[in-house]
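Feature request, filed as a ticket because there's no other form

It would be nice if the structure record came with a short human-readable summary line next to the tokens. Right now we just get the raw output. Example of a typical job, pasted below so the devs can see what we mean:
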Amino acid sequence: MAISKDKKQQLVADLNELLSDAKMVVFAKYQGLTVAEMQELRKAARENNVKIKIVKNRLVRVAMGNIAVYKDTDTSALEGQLLYAISNDDEVAPAQVLAKFAKEHEALELKGAFSGEGANLSEQDVKNLSALPSKEQLIGQVVDMLLSPVNEVTNGLSGNLHALLDGVAEKATN
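Raw output as currently delivered:
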């Protein structure tokens, strides 16, 4: 069934808003996924603050043409039935969500991505991004590295303190 012109304009306006704030847009072929699998994908995406959109590629091209960052981006890879995973918070989350889902469901095939700066990324780039740790994991690693010297000093001092107390206790019993 054809979509009315008003509905198309509303979809383009919604896409303009989503893409303007997007840090990463990953697209993938989804042909062959069942409704239940799509619901599972949307649930996993929601848990990671990623939005899944299924929109005609032509409407995505129109929306991208309205945004200065994406105006000159090559959109030739937008062919076939594609879904778009969009994140406004994390550059890596859409790639991780789709790559993880694609490992379990062969029907989902990663095709590429657009960065928040308008760069066109290949399928291999998306797979490489999905292997990176998430923002929260990176923050945790940095905090752990910063606390490492403090923990080592504390452990060293507590070890010496225990030895001192053991020595005092031994003297007291003799």
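Something like this underneath would help us a lot:
The helical segments are 5-21, 35-47, 57-65, 93-104, 123-130, 135-173.
The radius of gyration is 25 Å.
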